[in-house]
Design a protein that fits this description.
Layout (H helix, E strand, L loop, with lengths): L1 E8 L2 E8 L9 E11 L1 H8 L14 E9 L11 E4 L31 E5 L3 E3 L6 H4 L2 H15 L7 E5 L3 H13 L2 E6 L2 H9 L4 E4 L6 H8 L5 E6 L6 H7 E9 L13 H5 L3 E4 L5 H13 L6 E6 L3 H10 L5 E5 L3
Parallel strand pairs: 8-9, 8-11, 9-10, 11-12, 12-13, 14-15
Antiparallel strand pairs: 1-2, 3-4, 3-6, 3-15, 4-5, 5-7
The chain binds NADP nicotinamide-adenine-dinucleotide phosphate.
NADP nicotinamide-adenine-dinucleotide phosphate binds next to α1, α3, α4 and β9.
């Protein structure tokens, strides 16, 4: 089969196309013929942290959807031909998070990823793809969508009538926007681009703020919410957004801490947090159980992921370059097989 492995050269890392034997599923595992995979900002961070060659040989990417191709001994919950997606973690199936799950993330420091024509996955770490979605669409779900779902819905209880600040228009952000609209919450979307804000409007966003032309966007959030602030904040920016998020959160509100797009730290002034009895909720993607619950909602509400582009398997480096350029609206997908 064809696959990509990370390869460092002269202080730079790139995904290099290669070949390997088709893997056999171990007992309890399922082999999947991968139809599509998708990229996340995380995949850029992984390249940036692998310049020392420490991840040479690692198969990259965490997100894939495909068709069950073979069953390992003891697997009875799937059959050949089933349409499935793999969870972000091989090991976090349900229940509370345990740090022991971290090394089981696909395409991370310790576990091979999904950018291959065939992968093997524990049967319990798979979810069925909603019927109304193609496998290309389903490949966008495992990291970005589950993160937004776990954070906003499962942990922060987003509901009808809430107000939620969505930072940017990338993968996690647009799933957050779609969930918010489907739940009847009011999304306030931030973007560097007026054109992307108009695209967000088409998805149901009402309040649109350009964070480049309105750098003090927290004041706009306060004004748009009659001085109250937002009940929820999907915090993706980190260093350059946190202080404003703390000012923009409503009394009793929740900051869902997910990303550090502009860097981590320095420590923000946390005094306002206690003054308004708000919470910060930390999120690391989610469990297979979160993925299943989210898929039920995605199917019920007929939600379709927003895809910016689909790249052929042969030009994976172009997909990485497109993600790095930051011009995308939603998700970037790689077509692996028909
Ligand atoms: N904790 C977790 O489990 C978890 C899971 C998934 C992702 N993440 C993190 O979440 C973040 C987003 O990931 P992603 O895959 O969705 O990224 P992505 O698709 O590459 O989206 C990036 C977008 O973020 C927006 N952005 C950049 N700087 C911003 C700022 N200062 N204020 C507001 N928006 C800004 C930009 O939107 P515009 O172009 O509209 O300006 C950009 O297009 C990353 O930091 C990632 O590491 C964490």
């Amino acid at each position: 089969m064809k696959l990509y492995r990370l390869q460092s050269e002269g202080g730079r890392v790139r995904p290099a196309l290669g070949e390997a034997p088709i893997p056999e599923p171990a007992p309890g595992e399922v082999r999947i013929r991968v139809v599509a995979a998708s990229l996340n900002y995380r995949d850029l961070l992984i390249l940036a942290n692998a310049a020392d060659g420490s991840l040479d040989g690692r198969i990259p990417l965490s997100d894939a959807a495909g068709i069950v191709d073979a069953l390992g001994d003891g697997v009875t919950c799937w059959k050949e031909g089933d349409r499935v997606a793999a969870s972000f973690f091989r090991g976090w199936i349900s229940g509370p998070f345990d740090p022991a799950y971290l090394p089981t993330s696909f395409g991370g420091r310790s576990t091979d990823g999904v950018l291959a024509e065939f992968i093997t996955v524990p049967a319990v770490a798979l979810v069925a793809v909603p019927h109304h979605l193609s496998l290309v669409e389903a490949a966008t779900l495992p990291c970005a969508a589950v993160t937004a779902w776990h954070g906003l819905v499962e942990r922060a209880g987003l509901k009808n009538g809430d107000t939620v600040v969505i930072q940017g228009t990338g993968g996690v952000a647009l799933f957050g926007l779609q969930f918010a609209v489907a739940l009847g919450a009011r999304p306030l979307v931030l973007s560097s681009s007026d054109e992307k804000l108009e695209q967000a409007r088409a998805l149901g966003a009402v309040d649109l703020i350009n964070y480049l032309t309105t750098p003090d966007w927290h004041e706009a959030v306060i004004a748009l919410t009659d001085g109250k602030g937002a009940s929820h904040i999907l915090e993706l920016g980190g260093r350059e957004t946190y202080t404003r998020s703390l000012k923009a959160v409503a009394a009793g509100g929740k900051i869902v801490q997910i990303g550090v797009l502009t860097g981590a730290g320095p420590s923000p002034d946390l005094e306002r947090l206690q003054t308004v009895n708000a919470d910060i909720i930390g999120i690391t993607v989610g469990a297979t159980a979160h993925f299943s619950a989210m898929n039920a909602f995605v199917a019920e509400k007929n939600l379709v992921p927003v895809i910016d582009g689909v790249f052929p398997f042969e030009v994976v480096p172009d997909a990485y370059a497109h993600l790095r350029a930051g011009a995308h609206f939603g998700k970037l997908v790689i077509s692996v097989s028909d």
